[in-house]
Amino acid sequence: MSAAHWRRAMNSAATAAAPTMRSPAARLPRARATSPASLPADAMPSWLARGVARIRPRHVIVLVALVLYPFVASPFFTYQIGAQSLALGLIALSLTFLGGYGGMVSLAQMTVAGVAGYGIAIFGTSSFPAISLGWPWWLAASFAIAAATVFAAAVGWLSVRTEGIYTIMITLAIGVAFFYLAQQNYTVFNGFQGFSKVGAPELFGIDFKEPVAFYFVALACALAGYFLVRHLVRAPFGVALQGIRDNPRRMASLGYHVTAHRVAAYAVAGLLAATGGVLMVWYNGRISPGTVNLAQMISILIIAVLGGMKHPVGAFVGAILYVLLQNFAIDLFIRERFNLVIGGVFLAVVLFSPDGLLGLWAKLRSGLIRPQTSQQKRRPP
Amino acid sequence: MSAPKRRVWIRTIVGAAAAGALIGSAWAQETLKIGLLANLEGPFAVPGQDGYRGAEMALKEKNGMAGGKKIEFVKVSSDATPDKAVAMTRKAVEQDKVQIMIGPLSGDEGIAVKNYAKTKPDITFINGSSGAQATTLSDPAPNFYRFNTEGAQWMVGLGEHALGKGYKKMFLISEDYGFPYSQVQGFMASYCAKGGKVVDKAWVPLGTKDYASVIAKIPKDVDALLVVLGGSDAVNFLTQYEQAGGNKPMVGGSITVDQTVLNYKGKRRESLLGTSSAGPMADSIDTPEWKKFVADYKAQFKDGFPSPSLFAYLYYINTRAALEALDAVKGDLSNGQKAYRAALQKTSFKGPAGEVKIDANRNGVGTTYITEVTKAPDGSFYNKVVKTVPNISQTLGLPEAEFKKMGLGSRDVPDCRK
């Protein structure tokens, strides 16, 4: 079978799958219609008015809970569960954006995060002054994020000509290649050992390595990433991207530059993953090839799928479950076989809800409120 | 599922969780929790399990009690990455509130945990089986103790032994990370000082499968090979070297010719006879302490190895030291564990493979066993002890200033080529 045949087959498969994938866009008009129209349009700028009109009680509750959380929780829960979930969630969010809205599943998101992480260790300060350049943290962080974003765009540029499983394969190859490069190169990446003592900076008398301070840094980055994605998918760029996801040929014939949109999506996702990568390195205080190995690359996919790829919040929900399991599965009934518990939970979530935890939540909610009509509500004609 | 059914189901789960929490807290009351970190996943999952066994043996010898309190292990697991080791140590210390922490298993994990230990001055950390030199030599933590000796100490004396066998020029094949660097330094420190030469060094990445380019580089005129590889890397190298027609004698690192390698089948197996290596223990130590240790291990763990591994032994001596010091202070961990740490510093006992004690940097000073692969009457291969080198310090017998001048082992330290 020729490449052209494959491409056609993949395209028709994508079109067939499109109705189930379209729900975020499909939900959009309904959300607008039900929003309170009583706010005076001239009192504030239109984008702000639209933003305020979308706020629901549950948004306020979640936000307040997120802010109050570190003052209630122990330092362990603040740092290891809270901050780590936010950092991992941000990396997974980049995959949710790419996969859920762009239809491109990239396994290299952890690699992009790793490029940023290595960047901050190399440009900034670490335990290896022979390699690290010792720039101030803000310069190192911005260069690291910029470099990783460029890297992500390059990955995108290489892989956008492929589809489906081939995108996964090519991004997998790039990720594994980067892992071996980092492990075997001693002049730049310091080989197997990597870099340690790469901590968050001290600023205005606050040590951002402390759990509560670091939590708020992670929270700020995660919220910024979340709202960026929420904004983008409603903006013309995001709508065009979803159009390209559903039918690239039609979008091309309408005059959209499909490749450019896809590469841009990779770059945006790269920015998110890079920010998450910097947070990850600050969280661990170190980076080594183990941070970007195959298991870690796949864990980002697991997090995104666990949470659900239909809404950006899914990435963070998935990350919370993932981190909780990583930490507490060993305390459950079979200590020596705790990976069985982790695998079992992942399997159960995917088995009972292909849309991840978000899908489970939607099922549960529609079941509790209107058990009779849940079926019709989930599958709009 | 209908709504009432679901509600019953949820109630059952909540009830079960609450019951579980109650049982858990009632159990924890009159016990002292000790964190225990080894590996249940990743490349060291199998050795890691043996590490847990070693720790459990030490606790069982004391009938589960130390310092008048019942001891409960809070087991956590890493996958041999430093990130995971620190995360799991943090979980045990901050979430499960252990006051003494034993672990981790591998070298880079040890350095990472040592750095974490500095942020928790009220907790005492005792090593599991990690053997990186830097853990206690550069920037040590005052609350991190290691009763075992490390990678470089394990090779002391092997250099002279190789010279004694007439190996004047050698070629090095080694994995490219911290632990082999230490091992190679331990070998070279005495080997090179006494006139031996390592003409070239091949550093291969951990997990290398194809050694063709390395084998092609081996010069014809070397007397022997120094092979510091572990597990599957060692097996792969030996097989390919045999297929390429190589016949040089070999000197191995502490984990190169262990049971996994000796048990493999192939023509090359015969040529392993006479291969020397060195380590902090050996399967065939001829003392009553060691024989009792092996017998206890076999009796307690039906699913274990035929004989306790290096990891079981190292976790055993570290755990035993932790418990003996607890006995010495009668379980008193007050006042920032001051009394307990003083007791740890003084702890010294005759372990299964020689005396266990620590130096001023809280690192083990111990015995190294030089062994040679020998055929047993039943046809199986084992490592026969040919020489015992007691009282090896972390500076490899050199004065501290001289050792510091040499620096910690790395790709180019010591050089030994000239």
Q: Enter the CATH topology name of the largest domain in chain B.
A: Rossmann fold
Shape of chain B: globular
Beta strands of chain A, count: 4
What about the largest sheet of chain B?
6 strands, mixed
Give me some keywords for this one.
heterodimer; A: 381 residues; mainly alpha; two-stranded antiparallel ribbon; 17 helices; 2% strand; disordered C terminus; B: 418 residues; alpha/beta; Rossmann fold; 15 strands; globular
Q: What report would you give on this structure?
A:
- The complex is a heterodimer of chains A (381) and B (418).
- Chain A has 381 residues and is mainly α.
- Chain A has a domain of 214 residues.
- Chain A is built from 17 helices and four strands.
- The radius of gyration of chain A is 21 Å and the shape is globular.
- The C terminus of chain A is likely disordered.
- Chain B is α/β, with parallel strands linked by helices.
- In chain B, 41% of the residues lie in helices and 21% in strands.
- The N and C termini of chain B lie far apart (79 Å).
- At the A-B interface, helix 5 and helix 8 of A face strand 3, helix 3 and helix 4 of B.
